[in-house]
C-alpha cells in the first residue's frame, strides 16, 4: 500500500473518530442533559431514549476507530522516527479500555430507567439522583481519559512536524494541543471553581481536524522532497 493510500485510510478513521466523538460527547448531552434539573434530564432521556442509545453506540464506534487509528499512523510515520511512532501508539491505545469501561455508566442509566420490577421499590427521586450521579461519573471518566487524549498528540505532532510530507503547522498545533488537554484536566481538578478559557482547547481542535482533513483529502507525497514542509 502506498503512503498516499495509508494517509487517506488514516484520514478516514480520524474522521470517524471526530464525527462520532462530537455526536457522543457534545451533541447528545446538549440535547438531553440539564445538569441543574434531574427530573428534566430523566424525562429527556425517556422521551429520546433512541438518541441516548445512539450516543452510546457512537461512543463505542469512536473508541474502536481510535484504537485502529494509531496503528495506521504508525505505518505512515515509522520511517520518520520509530520510537516516537511507538510512543504515539502506546499513549493512544491505553485510553481505549478506560473509555469503553467508562461507557458502563451510560448503560447503567438505561438500566435504572428500564422500569424493571425490582426497581419499583426504589423511590423516583432516588432514581433521578442515581441517574445524575452516573452521568457525572461518566463525565469524570472523560476528564481522566483526556490525559491520554492529550499526551498522544505530542509524539503525533512531533512526527507530523519532522515528516517533511505534511504541513509543519499541524505538528505545531498538535504539540501545543497536548498541553491544552493537560491544562484542562489539572485546572479542573486543582481549581474547580476557575473556568478554563476556551482558547486552551483551540490548538488541539484545529490541529486534529486540520490533519484529519489533510490526510483524507490531500494525502501525502510517496517520495517527499527534501526541505519541503
TrEMBL record:
Keywords: Membrane, Transmembrane, Transmembrane helix. The chain crosses the membrane at residues 12-30, 50-72, 84-104, 141-161, 170-190, 196-217. It comes from the Bacteria. This is DUF4386 domain-containing protein. It comes from Pseudoalteromonas luteoviolacea CPMOR-1. The lineage of its organism: Bacteria, Pseudomonadati, Pseudomonadota, Gammaproteobacteria, Alteromonadales.
